[in-house]
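FW: tagging you since you asked about this chain on Friday. Here's the raw sequence from the shared folder, copied in full. Didn't touch anything.
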Amino acid sequence: MVHNRTVAARDDLAGYAWEEGQAALAGRIAHLRRPTHGAWVLNQLVREYRREAEDLARLGETLRQAQAERSGDRMRAATAQRREIVQSLMQHTRDLTAQRGVRFSDEVERQVSASLEAALCRPTGRRPIRGRLPDRGPALASAPRRARRTTSSRDA
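HL: got it, structure written out here
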């Protein structure tokens, strides 16, 4: 997988820090987690299409203002713009993964889409999309799944 290069780069950087006598820094670098496949894809998208990703983050503020002002016209216009930007970014994601020979599963698509939608909820002053997947929420497909019981203890 392409994003395994992240691990090699991390290990190289940790080794360099160790060689330079920065043992504490080397330890911190070595313990950085490898990004999930979805987070890696999102990072690639934001690096390649930063302007569109930032436009999406700013659009969240427009949506919040339109809602606060109860402006139906502005809400409709901003919602149409949101849909257009998200669709464009998702197409860019499909194109990027195809160009790089990386698998783009339905689960990764849901993760990236949920992350883009979550960017709308962040206040403008906070960092825009930076390869972080939402921690919670029903839209996140990678949330742990619990086995369903087919019968309850009461039914037995």
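FW: Residues 14 and 26 are 4 Å apart (CA to CA).
HL: agreed, and The chain has two domains: 1-34, 36-134.
FW: great, closing this out.
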